[in-house]
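Hey, can you fold this one?
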Amino acid sequence: MGGVGHAPAGTLDGRALHRFGGSRADWGGRGLRFPLRAQAAGPALGAAFWPGVAFSPGNRAAPSVAALCRIPLVCRAGVVAVAAWGAAVKRVWVRWVLGLALGGLFCYLALRDVPLAAAWIVLREASPAWVLLALSGVVLNNLAKVWRWEVLLAGRRMHVPFGLGLRAILVGQMFNYILPARTGDLSRAYLVGIEGTGTAYALGTIALEKLLDTLFYGLLFLGTVLFFPLPGWVSRSGWMLLGVTVAACGLLVAGGERVTPWVLRIANRLPEPLRGRVVPLLRDALQTLGVVRRPEALFSLMAGSFFIWGTAVFPNWALLRALGISGSVLGAMTVLIFLQAVVSLPGVPGRVGAFQYACILALGLFGVAETPAFSYGVLLQAVAVLPIILGGVVSLWGVRWRKSTQGV
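Sure. Predicted structure:
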C-alpha cells in the first residue's frame, strides 16, 4: 500500500487530495475509469487547467493522469475543474490585466498631445512605393531568420525543411506579439522538435540565436552612439548590455568546451527525480555550442545576423521616406534601438501604444514633431507586425491541418 506522496497508479496521492479537498478514504475506490482515449487526452486537459505543471506519474506535486481518470464523472469532476480553473484563470487574468494596464499607459503617453485627425492626414500622404519597399524588407528579414536558424539546427546533421522553419518562426513571433507571456519561443521549439530535431536542442538553438541578436543589438547601439548622443538612461543600459554580451560570447567561443561539463556537473547535484529529467535536456540543449566552434558555421551565423539587422533597419528608413519625414539611416537605427527595448517588455499584447510611444521618443531626438512621429509608429507597426500575425495564423492553421490529415 502506498503512503502519502507514494500513491500507486490509479489513486490520488496525499498532496493532490489536499488540493482537491477530502481524504483518501473519501475518494479511493469509488472512481470510474475513463476509456483509453480519454486517458490519453489527460495530459492535454491537465495542461489546460494547470499551466506549467507536468502531468506524469513521476510528478507527485500534481495529480497523475490515471488519478484524474478515476475521479467520478458527476460527483467529483465539477469540484476538480472549478478548483483548477480558478487557479489557472487567476494567473492568466493577472498577466492580461497587467499587460492591458501597461498598454493603456503607453497609449495615453503616445496620444496625449496628438490630434488624431492630423495624424490621419499624415498617414494618407504615405507613398505606396516606399511602403512596399519597407514590406519587402520585412519579408527578407524573416527569410534570413529562417536561414540562420537552419544553420544552427544543422548542428545535429538533420535537415529541417525551409517551409517548416518559416512556419515555426512566424507562429512564434505571432505568439510573442499577441500574448502577455512570451511563449512564442517555446512554440517554435515544439514545432521543429516534433519533426525529429528534439525540442531541447531546438530550444538551445533559440537561446544561441537570442545571444547573437543581443550582440548585434549592442553593436547597433555602438554604431549609433558613436555618431549621435543618446539619452543617459539609454546609453547606460546599452553599454552595460554590450559589455555583458561580448563577455558571454567570448566565453562561449573561447571556452565552449568547458561550459558543457561545468553545467552538467552542477545539474548532476540535483535530487534524483529532477536530475533524471534535467540532465538529458541540458545535454541536448548544450550540443548547440558545438556550432559556434566550427569556423564556417560561425561565419555564416555572423553574416546572417548582419543581414538580419540590416533588413531590420531598412523598413524604418523606408517608412521615414514614405511619410516625407526628414530622417537618415542614423534615425532609423535609433528607432530600432528604442523599439527593441519596447518589444522586449513582457505583458503588452500587440505592443499597441508602446510601439508608437517608442517612435515618438526616438524621432523626437531628431526634432520630429509628435504627430508625424505617431503616424510613423502606426504605419511601421502595420508594416512590421501585421504580416507576421497574418502569416502566423496561416502557418498555425497549416500545421493543424497537416497533423489532422496525417491522423486520418
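Confidence is low (pLDDT under 50) at residues 1-89, 404-408. Let me know if you want another pass with a different chain boundary.
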